[in-house]
Design brief:
The structure holds 2 protein chains of 2 kinds.
Chain A: E1 3-6, E2 11-14, E3 19-21, E4 23-26, E5 32-38, E6 44-50, E7 56-59, E8 62-65, E9 75-77, E10 86-93, E11 103-104, E12 108-113
Parallel strand pairs in A: 2-12
Antiparallel strand pairs in A: 1-4, 3-9, 5-6, 5-10, 7-8, 8-9, 10-11, 10-12
Chain B: E1 4-7, E2 10-13, E3 19-25, E4 31-37, E5 43-51, E6 54-57, E7 64-66, E8 76-78, E9 87-94, E10 105-106, E11 110-114
Parallel strand pairs in B: 2-11
Antiparallel strand pairs in B: 1-3, 3-8, 4-5, 4-9, 5-6, 7-8, 9-10, 9-11
Classes of the chains: A mainly beta, B mainly beta.
Chain lengths: 114, 115
């Protein structure tokens, strides 16, 4: 079956530090890959996505590249801010599969200190 | 503004009691979903509905029930059969296009606790 593995947290960084959150997946074929972010006390919201190999998703300074050869989709940001403190979830879904049946990782909690 | 509204934000359940969590969307989405989130864990799918008057069990449906009488509404009932109901419950929706980029839209969640 499908699975998503994220680096364990929590991750604590100082403001303006470089961020990497690792995500690797196991799946057949060519799934679409997503990063969702959850701010305290809220639901998840889509941060970025990539739908085929070598695609780069980007949003709000965050980037992730779909690497088929390493089955990875690592999230990066060059300079984090306090407002980036949240839980980040990596997820995958196959084409023509119900979006709600996405496979999620366990989430990585990021805390950014001033 | 379009979105998903969950209520209440906090809910307390007594032993043997059924409680219902509300989820309403005005995005005109066909598909709706309920997830359970436990601390430090990913999301687990409880139930989902792709169209009005139809729904399917997800991975952890035991002790829960749903209805989909209107496109906009997908309430979740946590029954007394659910022995460990304390969790954060998230409702979501999607367009149900099946396309590669189809994404989920989430509500703000309901925290359910047992008294």
């Amino acid at each position: 079956g499908n699975s998503v593995t994220q680096m364990e947290g929590p991750v604590t960084l100082s403001e303006e530090a470089f961020l990497t959150i690792n995500c690797t997946y196991t799946a057949t074929g060519y799934p679409s890959l997503f990063w969702y972010v959850q701010y305290p006390g809220e639901g998840l919201q889509l941060l970025l996505k990539a739908t085929k190999a070598d695609d780069k998703g980007s949003n709000k300074g965050f980037e992730a590249t779909y690497r088929k050869e390493t089955t990875s989709f690592h999230l990066e940001k060059g300079s984090v801010q306090v407002s980036d403190s949240a839980v980040y979830f990596c997820a995958l879904r196959h084409l023509n599969t119900n979006a709600g049946k996405s496979t999620f990782g366990d989430g990585t909690t990021l805390t950014v200190k001033p | 503004d379009g979105g998903i509204t969950q209520s209440p934000k906090y809910l307390f359940r007594k032993e043997g009691q059924n409680v219902t969590l509300s989820c309403e969307q005005n995005l005109n989405h066909d598909a709706m979903y309920w997830y359970r989130q436990d601390p430090g864990q990913g999301l687990r799918l409880i139930y989902y509905s792709q169209i009005v008057n139809d729904f399917q069990k997800g991975d952890i449906a035991e002790g829960y029930s749903v209805s989909r009488e209107k496109k906009e509404s997908f309430p979740l009932t946590v029954t007394s059969a659910q022995k460990n109901p304390t969790a954060f419950y998230l409702c979501a929706s999607s367009i149900r296009s099946g396309g590669a980029g189809e994404k989920l839209f989430f509500g703000s969640g309901t925290q359910l606790s047992v008294l």
